[in-house]
């Protein structure tokens, strides 16, 4: 178990995440113009670019230069073991398809995890010029200002964000779930980046969010920002967030959305 315990220690982790996310975001932003697909991952629609890998390399190098005994889990490069008890969870470009098509809706997400709990986070949206940051128990901030999510609204007045997976069968099931959800809410949005969507919840961009198929690096840093801003981040049946399903909303609305999604098989591929 790590010896990092004090709020000051956690703030130093956050500050490192902010500094590295800013540098990595600027690198990725400079490389967005003219970018091409380098490879695919789980399916032909699941792309990775040259800049995904270059950005993750920079993040890993900067983190380990500052804290050489930490572990790192990155979306593109896999895991590096460490001995300090701190593990960095990194998504170098969340929203790669958006990035590839020239959309501004993508971001760099870096979270620090201790004993399986995310304790510090930075999410940088370079094109929007927004830096979200959070410390466990210390609140969330946007560009240095305290961040608090708007209060809950009833489900029928909720603007709900979601996303779709890369496998055809999963997409088909997600579309079926959506046809049951959309008559019961104000409207649906599909942005294409979990980092943008989940941090956007803290600013009132949406009232609720759910998605199946996310990985730890997708929700780790954004999820801490959201929870420290007063949102509930979990899974189905009020469980923890997981690859099966992630739900984000203010308490009250969270339970309504959870109850709606549970019988629809939102956590399955049909």
TrEMBL record:
PROSITE patterns (UniProt xref): IMP_1
Record bears the keyword Zinc: no
Keywords tagged on the record: Hydrolase, Magnesium, Metal-binding
Co-factor(s): Mg(2+)
EC number: 3.1.3.25
Entry-linked Pfam families: Inositol_P (PF00459)
Catalytic activity: a myo-inositol phosphate + H2O = myo-inositol + phosphate
SUPFAM superfamilies: Carbohydrate phosphatase (SSF56655)
Enzyme class: hydrolase
Family (UniProt): Belongs to the inositol monophosphatase superfamily.
Name assigned to this protein: Inositol-1-monophosphatase
Naturally occurring in which organism (per UniProt): Nocardiopsis exhalans
């Amino acid at each position: 178990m790590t010896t990092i315990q004090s709020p000051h220690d956690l703030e130093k982790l956050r500050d490192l995440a902010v500094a590295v996310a800013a540098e990595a975001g600027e690198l990725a932003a400079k490389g967005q113009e003219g970018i091409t697909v380098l490879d695919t991952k789980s399916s032909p629609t699941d792309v990775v670019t040259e800049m995904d890998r270059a950005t993750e390399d920079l993040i890993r190098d900067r983190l380990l230069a500052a804290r050489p005994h930490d572990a790192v889990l990155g979306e593109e490069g896999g895991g590096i073991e460490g001995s300090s008890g701190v593990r960095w969870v990194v998504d170098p470009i969340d929203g790669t398809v958006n990035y590839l098509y020239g959309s501004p809706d993508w971001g760099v997400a870096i979270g620090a995890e201790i004993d399986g709990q995310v304790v510090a986070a930075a999410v940088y949206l370079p094109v929007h010029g927004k830096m979200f940051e959070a410390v466990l128990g210390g609140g969330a901030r946007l560009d240095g200002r305290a961040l608090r999510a708007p209060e809950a609204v009833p489900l029928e007045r909720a603007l709900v964000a979601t996303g779709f997976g890369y496998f055809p069968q999963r997409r088909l099931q997600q579309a079926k779930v959506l046809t049951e959800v959309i008559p019961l809410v104000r409207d649906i949005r599909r942005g294409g980046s979990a980092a943008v969507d989940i941090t956007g919840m803290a600013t009132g961009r949406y009232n609720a969010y759910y998605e199946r198929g996310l990985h730890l690096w997708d929700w780790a840093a954004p999820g801490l920002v959201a929870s420290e801003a007063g949102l509930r981040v979990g899974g189905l049946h009020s469980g923890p967030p997981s690859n099966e399903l992630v739900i984000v909303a203010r308490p009250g609305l969270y339970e309504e959305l959870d109850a709606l999604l549970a019988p629809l098989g939102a956590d399955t591929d049909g």
